[in-house]
């Protein structure tokens, strides 16, 4: 994990091919990838920092080529100046703006297991970005790989149904990678890929047994994940009986975070389901709300806090919270805001009927505000919401106590949400959201309606 040694090895992978013959650069790149795999996480971090810092775009070279291009453009109308000069300076500028590590990743992607290597590498890179967002070299490398993976993967992934008869290695990876609802064992796994359920995986030709993304589908529309996950005998519908397809888990490998494959994936799965069940009318999700609780806790003390909005927490709500606060032993502050913070900081309130009754309407209104009004730029702050709304779905219904697992309580205080893909409206919803930041919302949920249309 010596930066100087890593720098020397990386430099050898980026030598133009013509100077070393056809095979040598690929052999060196393969050895470099193997070296990376032997490093511990600290060593891999040094590798990535060296790659990002020393093999990115040279600002000095880019500025020089930009000046040459501007000069050539200014004289381009002069008949005495050859047109080829402008073409050459444009190409030189384009090359100067391409990071040196582009050649490393191009060659790495062509090695056996190269795409998997790059996806796993980006998983660690995302951790480095989260630790230090001001490291512009690391941020630039992450964005570069995000765009590369998107270009490499869209349109080339194979959609396959995963069943109990699929290869054991594929089933094992499905179990290990599942990120929405943990798979408890082989019996649970067998149920998820068995009769009454459908599971689809997207595979790259270089990794035929490893799903990059997988989608789990139920044919019943419950309000709670528990009802799907613990149904002892999922109903087996005939071709003519099926009316709804519920996407209750969509998981991608962690190194693909931020890579926009959503529209491509959803369309492929919907097409496959329509072929299998022509009678399907509803395509909807039962989705987690992973950022809700952390957002809510961040509202305490925030100058523009949603907690100050009387349409969300009314005067009557505050009085009821104060009454609860006076019941809490050994507390020096029974104000409504202190009581509310104490309650949502754990999940104990679920087991107290009075706290449960007081918190339910408050949390439902806050969740609606979070889903529809909390933004990053003009887009939804919640990553799962942004994924589905960008793909053309509408926010359909908040499901109270939709996921009471420890993970569900920690992330969203137990709530889940349905995103409904009304196929006739998907393109319009996508355009309105990506262009104007407008979120499509159903009229059927009274908790969502007051926040509909607010930007």
From TrEMBL:
GO biological process: acetyl-CoA biosynthetic process; fatty acid biosynthetic process; malonyl-CoA catabolic process
Stretches that traverse the bilayer: none
GO MF entry, a single one: malonyl-CoA decarboxylase activity
Gene3D superfamilies assigned to the protein according to its UniProt record, in alphabetical order: Malonyl-CoA decarboxylase, catalytic domain, Malonyl-CoA decarboxylase, oligemerization domain
GO cellular component, one term: mitochondrial matrix
Superkingdom classification of source: Eukaryota
Protein name: Malonyl-CoA decarboxylase-domain-containing protein
Matches recorded under Pfam families: MCD, MCD_N
Species of the source: Dimargaris cristalligena
N-terminal signal peptide: none
PANTHER family listed in its UniProt record: MALONYL-COA DECARBOXYLASE, MITOCHONDRIAL (PTHR28641:SF1), PTHR28641
Residue ranges of every copy of the Malonyl-CoA decarboxylase N-terminal domain listed in the record: 55-152
InterPro entries per UniProt: Malonyl_CoA_deC, Malonyl_CoA_deC_C, Malonyl_CoA_deC_C_sf, MCD_N, MCD_N_sf
Location of the Malonyl-CoA decarboxylase C-terminal domain: 155-421
